[in-house]
Structures are given as C-alpha cells and as structure tokens.
Amino acid sequence: MKRTDTEEFCVLSIEPNDDKTLLVQQITRQRKPIVILLTEQGRMFQRPEDFADLKHMKRELNLTIMFIIAQSERLAQLAGRHGFPVYPALEMLSDAFLMGQLTRQRALQAATGRTTTPLAHLSGPLPMTPRPYEFDMATDGRGESFASGRNFGAAQIATPPPPAIKSTVPLTPSATEQVAGPFPPAPLHTPLPVQGTDVTIPLPLPQAQIPLYQSSAPPLTPPNIPVRQRRSPLLILLAFLLIIALGSAGIATFVLLFSQPASTAPTAPLIVGQVTFLSSEQINENTDQGIDDEVLIDLHDLPNPAAQKSYYAWLLGDITQSDSQSVFLGTLPVQHGNAHLLYPGDQQHTNLLSFTSRFLITEEDATITPLAPSLDYTAWKYYAAFSQTPSAAVNSMAGMAHYGFLDHLRHLLASDPMLNELELPGGLNTWLTRNVTKIVEWTSSMPDAWQEGKDIAFIRRQTVRVLTYLDGLSFVQRDLPANTPLGLNERLARVGLLTMPNATQGPMSYLDSIVFHLNGLIQDAKTSTTLRTTASGIIAALSNVRVWLTQVRFDALQLLKMNNQQLSQPATLTLLNDMFNNATHAYTGMIDPTTGQMRNGVQWLHHQMQTLATLNVTAYTAHSSPIQLVAPQKHMNT
Which residues face 294 on adjacent strands? Predict the structure, then answer.
C-alpha cells in the first residue's frame, strides 16, 4: 500500500497483497478526505461486507471516503451501493472538486476547523475517460447519499492516470507500531510538476535488473573412497540368498496389505465461488419486501461453456417442497474463468430467501433462453444449497432440535413465525435495526428540545416512546404511571429490544431471539468454520448493544421519576446527553478508549448478519440433491 498526500486529501493505493490492518490504521489517523485507488486483483474490498465495514468506520470517524475504480464494474457497483462516490479516473474526481460535488465537504470543514481548496486540474498527456460512472442518487434515510451503479462496461472506462501528489510515502510501520505481515517497499518515483500548482505526479521508473546471486565458493570434490578388500565367494552367495528371502517376505506383505480395498475419507468438493443474498433495503413496516431481494454471484475457475451453449443461473425452492419454484437470475458470462453477476431483483423487491434455498447453473442452448432449468441432469453444472436437515445434536438448546440451518437463517433474515403472528413481517435482523434507529432518532431530539425551550412535555413523550421500544408492549406498563399514553403505533412495539427482569410471559426480546438462532447456526454440523466465526462475532456485538441499551433504559427510568421542577435543572441535560450517546453507540458502535479496538453496534452486525446468507458453489453431481422441479412460478428477466 502506498500513501500520497496533498494539502487537500490523502490517496491510499491498494496493492494486491495489502493487509486490512494497515488500511484501518491509516484511515483512523486521517482528518481530510480519503481517496482509495482500488484494483480488482487486490485481496481487500472483494465482498459486500468489506464495503459495509468501511461505511461503518466512515460514519464513526466522520470522514469523507471516495473510490477510484477503473475497469471493474462489479467493484464499482459494490462501492456505489454502500454510499461511496466512485470515479473511473482521477480527472473525474478533480472535476467533482471544482464543481463542489462532494456532499460532505462542509461537514468536514467544520470537523477539521480549516478550509480545503479544490483539487487542481491535471495537465499533460493524460488519457481522458469518455464518461464517468452513472449513478442513480438517493438518500439512505440519514441525510447521506448513496448510489446504485448503472451502465457500466469495460469499453467505457479508460485506464486512470497516476494520482496527483506532493510526496510519496511508503507505508512501512514505525518502531512504535505493531503491524501484522510484511509490506514491500514502495517503488521509486520521479516527480513531474503540474502547471500552476505545487502538486506533482509520480512516474514509476523501470526497476533495475538485479543479477542473480552466484556463489564464488569452489565446487565440492568427492571424498576419496578406500578400496575394499575382496570378499570370499561363500559370503557373496549367503548374502544373495538372504536378499531373495527378504524380497519374498516383502512381496507377501504387500499382497496381504493391499488385497483389501482401502478405506479413505471422501475429499471435500472444490468450491468455485459464492452466491450471496443481499437486501436493497427498500423496506416498509407492512411487508417483507426489500429484504434478501437481490443476489450476488461471484465464481472463479470455470471452464467456458461448450460451443453454442451458455451458462444460466437459477434459484430453486426447498428440497422438501412439493411445488418447487425457480427464479431465473440471468445468463452467466465467463471471462478468463471468472463469472460475476448481480441480480437486482424484480420491481416488487420480492423476498427471495423466504421461498428459495438452492442455487443452480445449467449449460443449455445459447440461442434460446430457457423458461426453466433443464430436467436433463447432464445440463446441471454447478450447485449449492443451504442445509435443510433438522438439528439432531444431543446438546441442542431447548426448543432448537426441530430447526435446521435454513430455518435459523430465515428467522434471522427473511421471515420469523413469531413476528408474523404479531403482524411484523420480515426477519429479526430488520426489526432490530429499525427499532434501534428509532430510539436514536427520539433521543437525538431531546437535548435540543431542553436547551431551546425546556419543553418538558416533549421530553416526557419521547422518554415513554423509548422505554416502550426497550421493554416491549407486554412489560412497559410496569414502568409507566397508570393510563400513560404511549404515543406510537403499538403494533410496532409488541416485541421489546431487551428482556425484562423476572419476565415470565410475552414474546422473547429481539436480542435474545437473535442470539438463540445464531447459536442454532453455530451448532449445525454442516456450518463452516468461517460462518461460526462470523456468528460468534455478531453475538459479541449484540452483547455491546445490550450494555448500551440497558444504560439508555436506566436513564429513561430516571427521567420518568423526576418532576417538572427537577427536569428543568441543568443535571437533566447531562442525563439527556448520556441517553443519546448510549443510543448512538448501540447503533454505530464506538472505539474503546482503553484498547483502541472497535466495539461494534447494530449497524455493523446488520451487515454482518446478511453475510450469513452465503452459499458455497461446487460442481454438481447427480446424487447431490433430490430433484423437484415444476414449471417456474417466477421467471424474472432483467
């Protein structure tokens, strides 16, 4: 990784072998806009969760982060979907500075206390890109813009010029830093001045040819071998007979050992990539639409399809369904053995995970797009499926034995039966995120209301709402005076975020329900080590959230016990600010001041939980799954 600095911004060039630890260290030290130069060959930023983690860090540190991505439609789409400005070349970024298009420039100036100047135009014989990436801009509900990529293509993208810099700094750790992994030194550069500015452009020099090391040590000479004395013929005959006897015994042993068939463990099938369910987040309170309505396919080491054939990607229903459904994801192009496809869903943002659980690639006629997967098994080339076998572990948690991996996954991400009975469509992950977001919204308005006019009635109303979401409708009346109006949609508060002390009835809280099903995923025999690690990390983040929300509840109870005169005292503002800070930490997380480590919140675990819906794709074998196909009820061409 190389870092190049100007007065206006910091450029981080990601190289193929770079390590995420060093990137995090560099980002946390910055207070000016960061530009990340990204290539498709690097190890970092190859998965949606990589961009989600960076988005979380950006908001926590209040930074501006942009990407320059050339000739990679897939990475540009992922960055744009997570709210990062994406430019195919540095000239486009330069134009954006001159036109004042950085949406968070004012916020950055306020945070740093200085004014930044626009990036100067680059001059010289630099290749110009015909057009920038096109994005449909929208907002993410918190005042920040995000973009979804459209109309990408390698033909529209030119190779970006080197970034404008004033100095080139190799990122080698200092004596006081602990950085894991070796980092190669940065190549030498010759600065090229840019007209009208002190910014320079590095031009890489050809690296010197280093001669191969040659040893000057003299060649070794074989030692002198003494001449052996002549042996008698009798000894030679005896030695010959002994050799024959030993050879016969060895042959007999070989026949005895290898006459029985060898019992070797079957080798695991080779994984050629992953298929991940994604959410467009085009959701509402009344349906499960916008959840797991997109699919990202990322495969490698694929052979080209046969002549006059094409690969077609499908989602299939559950193995146990009598009326299986298939969803056509699209034709799968293969370039240099790699295949990438983002299925954006249909116009209704249909929840795909709620009724599909298997992935299939068929090889069929290229001239006619099939209406359904072929029933000829020889056309089935690659396959993946979520485990659907109920847990049979002896040490299963109470009530979990009848659930399989797919059941737990759907409860978390797509559809939970308990929530459905309470008219709360969608998975536990969505409702946890939504309700914590509402608590942040309510607590953020309370300090301003107190400072501007000491609006005691408003503070009481907001406190009741916060407490209702934390306790749940079944338990909040224990904490409120009789006949206290709740002032919200009671349907949305039927499940609490926290489990109340001595609670013996009512629905399980969101936090406890999520932990319950995450443990179910961990206990499943077919769960991979990677997924177990991810689930364990989410459980740790839920523990952080529980601590912060418990403190919010404690502050809310203190406010309810105070009379109007007490609420008018300056100590109330301290309590309101503490309440808001803990609610914010529960959502965004915080950096632990004692350890310097990130303690993650709901925003992080929301994205991490989505990665659980990932399938490992392998070559299809005829006996790998029962086949149940009918005419597809959903055939979506995009």
Answer: 278
* DSSP bridge partners of 185: none
Grouping H, G, I as helix, E, B as strand and the rest as coil, residue 361 is: strand
Residue 168: its pLDDT value, please?
40
Contact 456, 318 (CB under 8 A): no
User: What are the DSSP calls for 121-167, one per residue?
Assistant: PP-SSPPPPSSPPEEEEEE-SSS-EEEEEES--GGG-PPPPPPPBSE
Q: Helices (H) and strands (E) in the chain — how many of each? A: 15, 20
Regions in the chain scoring below 70 on pLDDT: 19, 21, 40-43, 95-266, 322-324, 391-401, 502-505, 623-638
Which residue's structure tokens are 């109006």? Answer: 485
| Cβ pair 371, 630 in contact under 8 A | no
Q: Are 524 and 391 in contact (CB under 8 A)?
A: yes
| 8 A C-beta contact, residue 380 and residue 620 | yes
pTM of the model: 0.62
8 A C-beta contact, residue 197 and residue 120: yes
What pLDDT sits at residue 91?
Answer: 74
Q: Give the span between the Cα atoms of 341 and 554, in whole angstroms.
A: 48
* CA–CA gap between residue 183 and residue 171 (Å, rounded): 8
Do 157 and 71 contact (CB within 8 A), yes or no?
Answer: yes
Alpha carbons within 13 A on the beta-carbon side of 244 = 6
Q: Provide, for the chain, the percentages of residues in helix, strand and coil under a 3-state DSSP scheme, each rounded to the nearest 5.
A: 35, 15, 50
Rounded CA separation 274/608 (Å):
16
* 253 Cβ contact partners less than 8 Å away, ≥ 6 residues apart: none
Question: What integer pLDDT is reported at residue 494 of this predicted model?
Answer: 93
Q: 3-class SS at 35? A: strand
Residue 66 makes CB contacts below 8 A (sequence gap 6+) with 33, 34, 35, 36, 84, 85, 86, 87, 93, 102
491-527 pLDDT tens trace: 999 999 998 876 666 788 999 999 999 998 998 878 8
